[in-house]
Each structure stands twice: as C-alpha cells, then as structure tokens.
Amino acid sequence: MALSNNVIGAINFVAMLLSIPILGAGIWLSNQPADSCLKILLWPVITLGVLILVMALAGFVGAFWRIPWLLMAYLVGMLVLIILLACLVIFMYMVTIRGSGHIVPNRAYLEYHLEDFSIWLQRRVRGSYKWERIETCLSSTQICPDLNQTYTMAMDFFRTYLTPIESGCCKPPTECGYTFVNPTNWISPINNIADPDCIQWNNDQTKLCYSCNSCKAGLLASLKQEWRRADIILLVTLIALICVYLVGCCAFRNAQTDDIFRKYRQGYS
C-alpha cells in the first residue's frame, strides 16, 4: 500500500507539472495581439490549467496522507478535466481548419477574406457592438504605427511579409488601387467599388481600415495562427496527462487490492 501510494504521489506531482504548459499557453495567448483583443479561449485555457493543478494537488495530498476518498475524488475529477481538455483541443482544431491568405500579384504579403473562415469565428467579429470594442483595442496598439518607422519606400513595403493584422487593418485592399505614401497613408484609389473595404479606408490614423472586413479577417487569421500553436501544446499535454492518469489508476487499483489482502490476512490470523 505504501509503495503504491508513493507511486500515486509521484504521478500527481507529474500531473501538477503538466498543468504548467496549459497555464503557460493561456498566458502566452493573453500577450498575443489577436487574443488580447478577442478574448475567447483565454480564460477557459487558464481555468483548465488551474483546475488540473488543484486536482493534482488534491491527489498528491490524498496519496501522501493515505486518504482514499480524496484519491477517488481525484480520479473522477481528473477524468472530467481530461475530457474537457480533449474537447477544447478538438474544438480549437475544428474552428481553425478554414481560413488562409490569398496571394496578391507583385506583393510579398497575403490578404485575407472574412468569408474564408469558419462560421463560428465569423460570428465573433460580425456584430457591430462586438467589433467596436475589438476595433478600439486594435487602434490603441502600436501595430500599424510601427510600420511607418520601418518602411518609407513603396517597393520595400510591397516586398515585405506582413502579419495578418498588419495586412488587413493597416492598409487598404490592393485591388482598390490606392497609391502608397507611407504604410498607413494611401491616396487616389483607382477602383473604389472593387471591394466594399475600398470606401472604408481612412487616412485618419485612428481609423485606417479598422472598420474593414479585411481587418476582421486579418484578426481571425492571426487568431488561427495563435490557436494552432497553443493547440499543439495542449495536445502534447493532453497525451501526457492521459498516460499519467492511466498509470495512476493502475497504482490506485493495486493499492486497493493490497489493502484488501492485508485486511484479509489480519482477519484470518
């Protein structure tokens, strides 16, 4: 029994360590441009990490002080959390399957269309009330102003890779035919009806293309990149947690069997 409890305690210590990547993924998302303005999975990820940490700590205490009901609560609770984490991993993958950039002639950067993304993600940015808050958040960052400090010549700008948010929010769509002055100042459009975003562009540095569908698409494209990276971390952690949980179940079962035999031998003698 003591050996099995020590094994369970060690396993729960590993489970506590595995909560760190989950918490780290949540904290990392909070520092990314898209997730800092569109906080969808930020708190679910962090909450799951905290709950797994607490549950693993409960299992560690139950094993160390040999409290069977606490160990049983740990096994049930951890199973529920593993299922929730698996659902989150699958959900993040499914909603980010769609949506990719479009190649623009004579440009190194890509441009993005809102309709390319999953319906669920589109709904997160389509409402005017929702987008006003997100737009305010984006315009308060240095994402677009920083471009003016880096690129002064049109050819340099056209040959550079832009992040999805930079491409969608800081400049007008290429097909509008605007003339480059600097990365956030464009004049004399050739075709104002080529795209609804063409008339949305504004040289006011607080407006730019923040009201454009291309900006919404750029935000979602950035979100997709961030979620895919976080999803890999969560998937690896999920697999490790499942392995740790299965070993813990075996150790708990062995501990219970040893305890039953011990009581039987004591009663027999």
Automatic annotation (TrEMBL):
Q: Which UniProt keywords apply?
A: Membrane, Transmembrane, Transmembrane helix
Q: Where in the cell is it found?
A: Membrane
Topology term for the membrane: Multi-pass membrane protein
Annotated GO biological process:
auxin-activated signaling pathway
Highest rank taxon of the organism: Eukaryota
Per the record, what is one GO cellular component?
membrane
Note the InterPro entries from the entry. TET_plant, Tetraspanin/Peripherin
Which segments cross the bilayer?
6-29, 41-65, 71-95, 232-255
Family per similarity comment: Belongs to the tetraspanin (TM4SF) family.
Q: What is this protein called?
A: Protein TORNADO 2-like
